[in-house]
Design brief:
five-stranded antiparallel sheet; seven-stranded mixed sheet; Fum_R/Succ_DH_flav-like_C_sf; 19 strands; Flavocytochrome C3, Chain A, domain 1; binds flavin-adenine dinucleotide; FAD/NAD(P)-binding domain; 17 helices; alpha/beta
Length: about 525
């Protein structure tokens, strides 16, 4: 096993990881680790843009209220206030770093509108290619000053006694490297990839969250999975149709051509995502119909939405008829590793930023285009915390810890499901509409029995299945615990939000979870 040392190790090369690296590299020796090529991330795929209070008639209070309303007031009020107040500063920094945001002839930002926003406040680039433009600029900036290790799958944290000292990674040839660090930042993205109907890039398996869980960090809000209303539906699901299309006049219609959001919500097609997705789900599953995005009234479509135009072309969908077939799918995960204003987790020396973190800003349902914003804002916060001298931490741990963590174990992998099976079970029992009976079935299928692997000894394909099944089990069991409906979490058997659940989070920790899988998952490091 190779051992590499750095002051800061960042797992993940999306917007959150790279912005943290940008700030930290001024003073620290930083390594960014990604399991794929640096361009492979959900950040790269982001279409609509970043929400920010830019318009002179807009206020942070309005952005704040839109965020709370979309989140069904499950949001953390202080963190949310901090988030929305930072919006214009994020846009300034990204512009300075070379992101070519779309502007009018006077140089003012062109501001789009998306679901749940009462004002135009979505700053975008390249029409619907905001993520690509941001990531290209960030990659350009950090390439010379930060060491980037691609093709390294982070498997386990090196943690003991409530402290984190680094991370073990494995490459495709099976070589293990221990990256020791004073500060370890998880920026590994979310877990919408545990569903088969998803907008996410391949690999959104929640592995960073699972790693943190096994090491003893607290997780929160895992039951809140956002289903985006408009994934492109051809033979299979072929990508996302940004909400900005509805912001420009696109209307959701059923097979008869009737608008389906009339009378459902004052914002109609631009209602928050949970509401629109449930309406489409009803039309498709209960009425046995189809849903289309009618774009006949969207002017200059190909220029405004070049990415969506290409996506439709690749899927064999002609835009001539002005109707794009759509279906909802898992898009964003509000749950994650519980963090504070400085990205700190419950383990000392371990931080989490971006979609893998649960800062509390999204509540029970994220407001559109608040995710890139969250990644940028809290990556900077975390970096600045680490850079502040008084928080300097000395790296000290015994080598016996390494040997202990890296010891082999006996296992039988009968209980481990194939990825397709995990995704199918999640679609069927833990999707837009859930109930106790289905969730219990899923829970039973996801139990890992006597499977107790020393993960570092396993091939990456098996580690990935283990992580996905762990993530699926954590999600389903959190869904079971929340016996109410709120935002993206809709229970047929408890269809209303209940007072006793207001502002209550379901916290998961391997140190407290009672189940067999929790003990087994912990066994590799914590026994
Ligand atoms: C199609 C699409 C469109 C979207 N549009 C928007 C939008 O317009 N506005 C908005 O605000 N949000 C949007 N989102 C959501 C937003 O893009 C993501 O929430 C955000 O980019 C997440 O950033 P991140 O840095 O946390 O993680 P990601 O961008 O997902 O990056 C995760 C990184 O972690 C690495 N990684 C993960 N696990 C491991 C491991 N075990 N070992 C090593 N490396 C690992 C990956 O390789 C990757 O580099 C969209 C999402 C999708 C899928």
């Amino acid at each position: 096993m190779d051992i590499v040392e750095a002051e800061v190790i960042i797992i993940g090369g999306g917007i959150a990881g790279l912005i943290a690296a940008e700030y930290l590299s001024m003073k620290k020796n930083v390594i960014v680790i990604t399991k794929f090529d640096i361009k492979h991330s959900n950040s790269y795929l982001a279409q609509g843009g970043i929400s920010a209070v830019i318009d002179k008639n807009d206020t942070w209070q309005e952005h704040y209220m839109d965020t709370l309303q979309a989140g069904h007031f499950h949001n953390d009020p202080e963190m949310t206030e901090f988030l929305v107040k930072e919006g214009s500063k994020v846009i300034d920094s990204l512009s300075c770093w070379g992101v070519p945001f779309d502007r009018n002839l006077n140089g003012q930002f062109l501001l789009g509108k998306e679901g749940g926003h009462h004002r135009n406040r979505i700053v975008h680039a390249g029409g619907d290619q905001t993520g690509k433009k941001i990531m290209e600029a960030l990659i350009r900036r950090i390439s010379d000053k930060v060491r980037i290790e691609t093709g390294q799958y982070a498997v386990e944290l090196l943690a003991a006694n409530g402290m984190c000292y680094g991370v073990y990674c494995k490459d495709n040839d099976g070589c293990v490297t221990l990256y020791k660090s004073t500060h370890t930042i998880l920026a590994g993205g979310g877990y919408a990839g545990i569903y088969s109907a998803t907008s996410n890039a391949n690999g959104s398996d929640g592995s960073a969250i699972c790693m943190a869980y096994r090491a003893g960090a607290e997780l929160a809000d895992l039951e809140f999975v956002q289903f985006h209303p408009t994934l492109l539906k051809s033979e299979k699901i072929s990508g996302l149709i940004t909400e900005a299309v509805r912001g420009e006049g696109g209307v959701l219609v059923n097979s008869n051509g009737s608008p389906i959001m009339d009378g459902e919500h004052p914002l109609k097609d631009l209602a928050p995502r949970d509401i629109v997705s449930r309406r489409i789900f009803d039309e498709i599953h209960n009425q046995r119909g189809s849903v289309f995005l009618n774009i006949k009234d969207v002017s200059d479509f190909e220029n405004k939405f070049p990415g969506v135009t290409i996506l439709c072309g690749n899927a064999g969908i002609s835009l001539d008829a002005g109707l794009i077939p759509v279906t909802p799918g898992a898009h964003f995960t509000m749950g994650g590793i519980k963090t504070d204003l400085f990205g700190r987790t419950s383990l000392e020396g371990l931080y989490a930023v971006g979609e893998c973190a649960n800062t509390g800003v999204h509540g029970a349902n994220r407001l559109a285009s608040n995710s890139l914003l969250e990644g940028a804002v809290f990556a900077k916060q975390t970096a600045q915390y680490i850079l502040s001298e008084k928080n300097e931490r000395i790296l000290s741990f015994s080598f016996s810890l390494i040997q202990e963590s890296y010891s082999a174990g006996n296992y039988s992998n009968d209980a481990l499901l194939e990825i397709n099976d995990i995704q199918e079970i999640m679609d069927k029992y833990a999707g837009i509409c859930r109930d106790e009976e289905g969730l219990k079935k899923a829970e039973n299928k996801f139990q890992l029995g006597n499977f107790n692997p020393a993960l570092l000894d396993q091939p990456i394909a098996l580690i990935k299945r283990f992580n996905m099944q762990t993530m699926a089990w954590l999600t389903v069991t959190s869904c079971l615990k929340r016996k109410e409906s709120r935002g993206s979490h809709f229970r047929r058997d408890f269809p209303f939000a209940l007072k006793e659940w207001e502002q209550k989070k379901i916290i998961r920790s391997v140190l407290r979870d009672e189940s067999f899988i929790a003990k087994k998952a912990a066994a590799g490091i914590l026994n």
